[in-house]
Protein: CN hydrolase domain-containing protein
Amino acid sequence: PRTIRIAAAQVGAVHRDDARSKTLMRLITLLHQAARQDAQLVLFPECTFTTFFPRHFMTDEATIESFFEHGDITAAENTRAIFDTAKQLSVDICIGFAEATDDGEHYNACIYYHAKTASILSKYRKIHLPGDFEPFPEPDAVNQLEKRYFKPGNLGFNAFRVPDLTESSEENGEPIFGMMICNDRRWAESWRCLGLQGVEVVLAGYNTPGWAPQMWGSSSSQDPEEAREEAIFQHKLVMQAHSYTNACFSVSAARCGLDDGKYDLIGGSSIVGPDGKIIAEAKTEEDEVIIADCDLDLCSPGKKRTFDFARHRRVEHYSILTSQ
Ligand code: CDT
Structure:
């Protein structure tokens, strides 16, 4: 069988001044909860270890660096405990973090950590960075200054195989995973790059504001409640539609809740099947584990019929996608 039990660990409010050790303990608690339900893999959100700091305009370098992880994330003091716990529980994790490289670059990254070998199987750096470099002039605006703090990812969209999750035979092989981060999920291009590599499970952590009138398109409501509903709807829309058109499962994990009592982030962590239907969904906007058994063979009909890319795509008409 090619069934994997996958969990998404939704993480509720994380305030700017929350001690990192406290946040880390919450993540470890979620990992234990998932492991008790026999999850084999747990997805954590984007920038999991701190509040979603790109909403803040900061110029002091030391303050900015305090939100980034430096050196080997699996060994660093602020983060290693989650990896040690994953290893101890034999549960793989995919987790997002703000990455500062040894040569001084900054990325919005995530890694797939393989518990059995205690190693990083794959790393992804967010390619579609939303928002702006400069803050909005309105003092109350919700900013998203990712272009200020991160460089666009330079690793591409690489699908990768994960050993030990299924009793794979040579015929069907080890499951094929892909990772993206938050805004990437809104772009058909991200999904198709993974889809063309035969991806069977897409993992996507996110931080999505429920209210960001300066950022959302002009169609969005000026009523906060309606705008929030729309943000949740559009999150589900892209996860469901792109899972269907790439015949894959997808797992999404939110950082959500009311950070600092005023910055609203939507919940809606979900697991979607290759038919585009939601099979598990968070009920709260707090720390919560959702879980589903994903039979990867359910990807085959879509990949062999409606979305058999080799038979049906007409690449001679797609050059505009990469020429502009
Ligand atoms: N973190 C992240 O990428 N958030 C964006 C907000 C976009 S604001 C219009 C998202 O796509 O959810």
Q: What stands out?
A: The chain is about 25% helix and 25% strand.
